[in-house]
Batch of 4 targets.
Target 1
Amino acid sequence: MRITESFNGNWIFSHGFDAGKVASLQAGETVRLPHSAIELPYNYFDETEYQKPFTYQKRFDWRPDFEGREVSLVFDAAMADSVVYLNGEKIIAHKDGYTPFEARLTPHLKHGENLLTVKIDGSENPEIPPFGGQIDYLCYAGIYRDVWLKVTSPISIANVKIETPDALAEKKTVTARVFLANPRSLAITGTLAAKIRKPGGGDVGSATVSVEGNEAFLTFSDLTGIDLWDIDNPALYALSLKLDTEHGDD
């Protein structure tokens, strides 16, 4: 089964960035994410204080549960121009300050200690929203949202699009388009099982389909006894998925 755990603790933060030193740990301040690169007073400050590059680094050890699996970091967001390195190798660049992104670590992990380096640049860049136009707020630099370590099977569930085409009908339909992550381009054969669970427990419906590619489509039909969400009755249903392939479960 997949592992998703917080990766927020024990980062080393420093001002500036040197591309020639991404493979070695630099001196700095130990911080915990989420983190703002610069703390400014509420008045009489200079916003150019954070409009420059900063470095975040973290050491972590190889774990037995990495073996044969996909290992990545999920950044909920970082402001604003991010570049991620692992053991001196560039993994990914993300030019945005608001959207999440994922850095695949698998090909560059080594047994023993690993070093992660993240460059954050708060400089105004017209190629990165919201810069390039008139803005009336400040975009403080830093890894200002959570970071997660994710460990999955070589083929895993990446995302799901859920639709309710007849939500007001007495008998309702729910569809789910499931997108699979398959970074190694492995042959996919297996099954995808799904259940819709109601608030407080109990199943509303279930479905199983064969999987032969990077997408699968599930339909739950003639569902009854479904409460629509309302401000006075915030009923939320959960879709649980289990992928079973020759490469492992997710």
Target 2
Amino acid sequence: NIQPPSCFGAANGRVEVVGINGGMEPMLYSLDGENFSPRSFFANLEAGNYRLWVQDANGCELDTIVLLEHPTALVLSMGNNDEIQLGDSKLLNPQINQDLSALDTFYWAPADGLDCLTCWPVSVQPSATTTYQLTVVDSFGCVVEERSTVNVRKERRVFIPSAFSPNGDGINERFTVYAGPEVAEIKSFRVFDRWGELVFERVGFLPNQELEGWDGRLGGQLIKNKVYIYYAEIRFVDGWEELHQGDVTLVR
């Protein structure tokens, strides 16, 4: 009875003698021709060729070659490491030399930035450079692991115009904060006149939303064309916060 290893590189193969024709009992068995034992099976074997020896009570010997075949190795590829901009996402779509239906389980780690721990493929949006590991277990219990590093480039792109013109022509009507996907929230956006009077305030909103911006009014009334001072508290998706300040010219 021959049982090859269950997984590539494993040492759990087994050879067992289940019957012998002829010879005189008791029988002795060996895999090296030197160390004989009455035990008729050999366990914890790697794949490969073995010479099995049988010796009877009269010292007569018989040998034969036994082959324990190599199981197919699980091969998992994650592709090259990638670089993304902070706030962007990346699809990790590994390749494996088996049908996904033949796999028992697979799971990702760490959980940071993952949209799913047991999906294939998986979308990741890390807030810092992260190495993701995929562990795959097939129906035989064979395990393969592979890693992929997603490098995060932290360009903190924020644009706040230096002028706006709320004159009803549909162009540049409101004053707001524009930013890339790396910005999670505008925590606060305040505009003051030169004497320190608050003329506009908005808190807890997303960038690039023109309707959230200032329309050049105070208390519902249009105010004078002049230079105003702004302060914008900005929170990024990695938790970093910045204060942007400057001036803006209102022109009609």
Target 3
Amino acid sequence: MHEYLNAFQKLEFLKIKQYIRRYAVSSLGTEHVDELTPSSDLPLIRRTLELVSEMKMLLESDDPLPLDLLYDVRTSLARASIENYLLTPDEPHKIAETLRISKANLGYFARRKERYPLL
């Protein structure tokens, strides 16, 4: 295990994650980048590289993703499941906006499913 940690340091894995982190458009994306770890699982590596290739092609040659402003609504959704709990006035708006953006992204990828089958 020590040799792997040494390789991560030499490859500056943490610096790479910090660089990628700058492109995250939400706190969920930032958390996902923070949780990234190297893998030796060849099928997982291949699938991830295919996903990255599709996303690169999308970013270089297609319309922008309809991401707008993304909210982290996990806490609001957890609170909403509590009986008689009242959400703050902005929480239903943030949940609705998240649903709107989700629907827009589903439509975006549905129209492009042949070009980006993995995404």
Target 4
Amino acid sequence: MLEEVELPYRAIPVDIGKGEQHAAEYLRINPNAKIPAMVDDGVRVFESGAILIHLAEKTGRFLPEAGQARADVLGWLFFQVGSVGPMFGQLSHFRGAKREDPYPLERYTKEVERLAGVMDTRLGESEYLGGDYSIADMATIGWARALDHYMKFDMSRWPNLSRWIGAVTARPAFRRASALKP
């Protein structure tokens, strides 16, 4: 989002492997000890959805002001926040866990496949999740890309989702952000 709107910023890496998110200084920004978080002109904002809404409202970009268009973008943003992120994250966790019980892996695989199908259906109706390119797409692209890159799903099952991933990752701002090194 910061690359899309071309606001100046300073990225400060937080090494979660070393537990830096539990430092008192960071907890003052995000009491939940998670990334991302930011301070913008003295305003503390944490959680990805809140950050995206904050920046969209600040810049007047990527979030319609009212009506069905705004409702669509917010609905798909919260679809990511409440479903895609948590379910894809749980699948990643259980794929890495050495467990004999197959239930968690089966449960989260089926749910991730269902969510990918929901996105594929939507993207068969609309070029982007919220209609026009928006914060909903920005919030969702990282998890959607993981389907192929890290989770090794057969993406031919979701042609509309695959098209959308290609469109979003081809954006210059996405490429600039992806090239950033911590």
